[in-house]
Amino acid sequence: MSRDAAIEGARACFDDGKYLELLGRRVAVPTESQNPERLPDLRRYLEEEIRPAFEAIGHDCAIFDNPVAGGGPVLLAERIEDPALPTVLGYGHGDVILGYADQWYEGLDPWAITQRGDKLYGRGTADNKGQHTLNMCAMAVALEVRGRLGFNSKFMVETGEENGSAGLREVIEANLDAFAADVFIASDGPRVSPDRPTLFLGARGAKNFDLVVDLREGGHHSGNWGGLLSNPGVILAHALATIVSATGKIQIPDWLPPPMSNSTRALLADITVEAGEEAPEIDPNWGEPDLNSAQQVYGWNSFEVLAFKTGNPEHPVNAIPPRAHAHCQIRFIQGSKREEFLPALRRHLDAQGFEMVEIQPPPPGNAIDFTATRTDPDNPWARWVSASIERTSGKPTAVLPQLGGSICNDLFTDLLGLPAIWIPHSYGACSQHAPNEHILLSEARDAIQLMAGLYWDLGEAGTPGKK
Amino acid sequence: MSRSDAIAKIETYFDDGGFIEDLSRRVAIPTESQNPDRMSVLYGYLTDEMQPTFERMGYSCRVLENPREGAGPFLLAERYESDDLPTVLTYGHGDVVLGYDEQWREGLSPWTLTQEGDRLYGRGTADNKGQHTINIAALETVLQTRGSLGFNSKLLIETGEETSSPGLKQLCEENKDLFAADVLICSDGPRLSPQRPTIFLGARGAYNFDLTVDLREGGHHSGNWGGLLSNPGVILAHAIASITSATGELYIPEWRPPGIPESVRNAVHNLVIDGGEGAPEIDPDWGEPGLTGAEKVFAWNSFEVLAFKTGNPEHPVNAIPPKATATCQVRFTVGVDPEEFMPALRRHFEARGFGMVEAEPAKKGYMMATRLDPENAWVQWAIASIQSTTGKEPAVLPSLGGSLPNDVFADVLGLPTVWVPHSYASCSQHAPNEHMLAPVAREGLQLMTGLFWDLGETPPAYAA
């Protein structure tokens, strides 16, 4: 049974430490895309880690410069075995968010992998180095067992995902033939729970923006002026309180998606969001009333205050601050009126008497603005991938219409016109955008086998085939 | 030698640069009491700057250690002339708030006195080095002109006012004889307007506290968790929005004064607040509806969010923050019980589902509110003296908007308290670009010289 040999080989790659060795080397490259000084490290990651690995499995590699100043390069690896075979486009991102080295647990370093029990810590282990490294290993094993892939492979690795994938659209638009494929299969994000194989078929969009109340220049003594001068912190707190309820329900009707369809409701009805050990406790009373946790995060919109500052929080003084500022975010599913979010907010604030609250662009370092996307759960490729994974795992695959998090999926669904299927290998409590980012070794070991089975099956007859 | 000679002499002191020279030296000493590294600087201000000045004026000095561990020392200087004369206690504080050097306007530094037009910039120019420098110079001028003061003088300089005067109350409670006097006459805070000499007779209290919503450890990806995890910034915003209206009206009954006494209302109702050039524009719709501006600040309570933080505002990431904190403050008049503030807030939060919002009073405690009757003889005497020096009718405020450790003098030492402020509201005293107005300083020197002169000549009837 060669399929079993491929799966066996993938397991061995994990158990022998080869996967961990590769990942350790990759985590050690500090590819912070939000830090302009790391630009050389972004290129180094592609040149020294990704290119040699793909060349070793018979791919030709091209590296595209980013047309956006300060943006990292994009690598495209390609192995065409036969133009008659279907072409699978893979994806990963080599960049990570800022390390915040001083905030990690004692003894941990964002730029070195550290194993503690079932957890493997390090910046990028979950997002996304651990995931694309896993897929690359699984593909290498499938190739080694069969001697060829049995399909055409394209695999791109970008280096600007954590900074909104700036320039990636332009690179693809300028090279549509190079990136052309029949299906997109890649890994990022979390499973619904660590032991349940998961597919997601789209992603919530995300739009960041700032709210600013800038009343006057300088602070003013709170005794001499208290009662006479408006307080920007009080005003902004009130404005936020009109946008979202105290239990997280969005209060602006134009920010909500159309009512949830029965099929989506059903798809998510039996899915339980279990992020695993040490996951934060889900607040059942938060968000939209009457939705279960899966419907909340995979089928509805949410609003966050990501940061808020007024005055001098580290050294408060007795002065009325001149200015308050909140960095905010909407996560939204396909069908939401994205272009209407900010105009609707302006109308809402004005109607509530908050004309002084300005809506401003987010800071360039955290300016994500992603479209929401979704591939139909009934798409043949979606069904086929789900079946391949079930064959390996022996468990029903959780199929999510969209991931809670945002990814640049519209480039694949809309720009390249592909069915886009994501197979996540992380889990919800991986702290991916925070200190102590990690993956679960047990989950990664399971996932590398699923991916080896999938890459094997892609080389067999019976795929949905070419477009 | 006469009253007018003394005033002429102090005018020369100002006009010839003596005042700026003395104040420059004092501003250059970075007496930040909120910075623990400055402890030796606080001592130095008393022993190297104040003490030699007072000894030159025939005062005997002693440095008193703070009974509170880690808090700055006090200097008590005393010049005794006769049992038959009144004793005046004059207070000042040598410490300042943090410099925040990098936030000052280009060309300015908190530790260098810089004159630009009418403004004397530097940390402490307004609060309080500029003010006690005026009073010390006025005392010295009267002494030099008359040969004696004509009254007994005690000077108390503390170094912890900007951290809520730790140990001051205990020191006075334990050493009442040392500080015994007939009246407190001193200077801090702002005039009602730069042009109008002002007397205030007490101060609003100040109660600082922190609100914290601490939900879990670490941030969590806002995509994976958005909709599933409560957001501490949202919760704290709602909790704050439940404390006051969006226009600053206080909602918690125990935080509101029971009303404004008739005599207080009469004193302040028609006062016009003029912060002077560069003053912020007053928001007429802010605060308690139906009150005049003067009533809001001199006779009512106010609530401020002094600081609020959630997430990583300088480098935000797409994560639901684990924690939000706000530093808040109530300024309050006589008539409310600050001991009730936190229990009332607790009840208020519990009733509205904000049980997860923790409220923690500031460790340094709070400043009590005080108020003296405007009809007091010392007040009437001071009004007459200032009027005779300046030709202007001083504004009389039963209590200042800002907070002072005046309860120590009014309640512990039982003194009538007469404050003659030499600053103005737009002096940026707790912010970058703190400054004093040169014309106000000059007039302050004149009227304090007149006041101390009159004290040795025609003091009011006082109970010894």
Can you give the mean pLDDT of chain B? 94
Say what the CATH topology of the largest domain in chain B is.
Answer: Aminopeptidase
Strand order of the largest sheet of chain B: 1-2-6-3-7-16
Q: Structural class of the helix and strand makeup of chain A?
A: alpha/beta
Uncertain segments of chain A of ≥5 residues (pLDDT<50)? none
Largest sheet of chain B: 6 strands, mixed
Low-confidence stretches of chain B: none
* Total beta-strand segments of chain B: 17
- Cα radius of gyration of chain B in angstroms: 23 Å
Describe the fold and architecture.
The complex is a heterodimer of chains A (467) and B (464). In chain A, strand 4 and strand 5 form a beta hairpin. In chain A, helix 1 runs antiparallel to helix 14 (441-458) and helix 4 crosses helix 14 (441-458). The model of chain A has no long low-confidence stretch (mean pLDDT 94). Chain A has helices at residues 2-15, 18-27, 39-56, 129-146, 168-173, 176-179, 222-225, 232-243, 262-269, 293-298, 341-351, 380-393, 410-415, 441-458; strands at residues 60-64, 74-79, 87-93, 114-116, 119-121, 152-158, 183-186, 190-191, 198-200, 202-203, 205-214, 220-221, 302-310, 319-320, 323-332, 358-360, 369-370, 373-374, 398-400, 420-422, 426-427, 438-440. Chain A has a six-stranded mixed beta sheet, covered by helices on one side. In chain A, strands 11, 13, 15, 16 and 17 form a five-stranded antiparallel beta sheet that branches. A three-stranded antiparallel beta sheet of chain A has the order 4-5-22. Chain A has two domains: 2-203 and 372-458, Aminopeptidase (3-Layer(aba) Sandwich); 205-257 and 301-369, Alpha-Beta Plaits (2-Layer Sandwich), CATH 3.30.70. The two termini of chain A are 30 Å apart. Chain A is α/β, with parallel strands linked by helices. The model of chain B has no long low-confidence stretch (mean pLDDT 94). Chain B has two domains: 3-203 and 368-455, Zn peptidases (Aminopeptidase); 205-257 and 301-361, Alpha-Beta Plaits (2-Layer Sandwich), CATH 3.30.70. In chain B, helix 1 packs antiparallel against helix 14. In chain B, 32% of the residues lie in helices and 18% in strands. Chain B has helices at 3-15, 18-27, 39-56, 129-146, 168-174, 176-179, 222-225, 232-241, 262-268, 293-299, 341-351, 377-390, 406-412, 438-455; strands spanning 60-64, 74-79, 87-93, 114-116, 119-121, 152-158, 183-186, 198-200, 205-214, 220-221, 302-310, 319-320, 323-332, 358-361, 395-397, 417-419, 435-437. Chain B has 14 helices and 17 strands. Chain B is an alpha/beta fold and 464 residues long. The two termini of chain B are 29 Å apart. In chain B, strands 1-2-6-3-7-16 form a six-stranded mixed beta sheet, with helices on both faces. In chain B, strands 11-13-9-14 form a four-stranded antiparallel beta sheet.
